[in-house]
Amino acid sequence: MKLSHAVLASALFISACSDAPQTQITNLNQLQPASPPPEMVQKPDFGDYKIVEEKKKAFVAFLKPGVTYINGLIENARTRLSSLSDAASINQDDQAFLAKVADLFNLPLPENGPDQAWFKEALKRVDIIPADLVLSQAAKESGWGTSRFAREGNNYFGQWCYTSGCGMVPSARSQGKTHEVAVFKDTFLSIRAYFLNVNRNKAYASLRDIRADLRKDGKPVTGVALANGLESYSERGQAYVEEVQGMIRYNEEYWSQG
């Protein structure tokens, strides 16, 4: 089933900086309202869990529906993109869809319309991110949902913003720094921000290259493989990558639940 440009826009639209490392957002006022999946309406207090296994299960049960939903939207959009790349002609609705993809994924259309080079890059960006990778980063960045930023700002991925008052000032912010930790209306918006950031930020081009190569070779797109493209997500570089990969492997039983 084709995903209309209106559905894609309402489900994914967020303004994020495409040139900066980490997950930085330039204007939170450009977030569009969207309803999270029913499973995400009531956020648990993860700090109340005394048994680690129960906290992990609750964390995945809460976040995974949003990850699955967004991956489904992306798969539909990707299918439509692939079909249009081989189309003999493109109608007005298709043109509107492509314009929205260009806007969402920071990939301006050529003056004469989309060519094969544009479609190739678009298909690199409009692609899924495995749930185990998304959830591992969310768990790592938020302390399994217990960090102040997750509890008070629905920020599970360490997203930053740069307008005064746009979020929460981190207590450990170095002198001279101006960033704040972004605040989201709900957890679903935090997940959307993460997806668009990883799929269009120049800092994660290597992740998208790894994913495209896996597709080309007919191999599965795995979180462990894609994590190799996240060196820029943290100042710790390769050590961060290895920690995320370790979390994916160690917590496999939780990522696969549901």
UniProtKB/TrEMBL annotation:
Domain Mannosyl-glycoprotein endo-beta-N-acetylglucosamidase-like positions: 108-241
Pfam name, any one: Glucosaminidase
GO molecular function, one term: amidase activity
Keywords, alphabetical: Signal
Name assigned to this protein: Glucosaminidase
TM spans (from-to): none
Coiled coil: none
InterPro entries named among the record's database cross-references: Bax-like, MGlyc_endo_b_GlcNAc-like_dom
PROSITE patterns assigned: PROKAR_LIPOPROTEIN
Secretion signal, residue range per the UniProt entry: 1-20
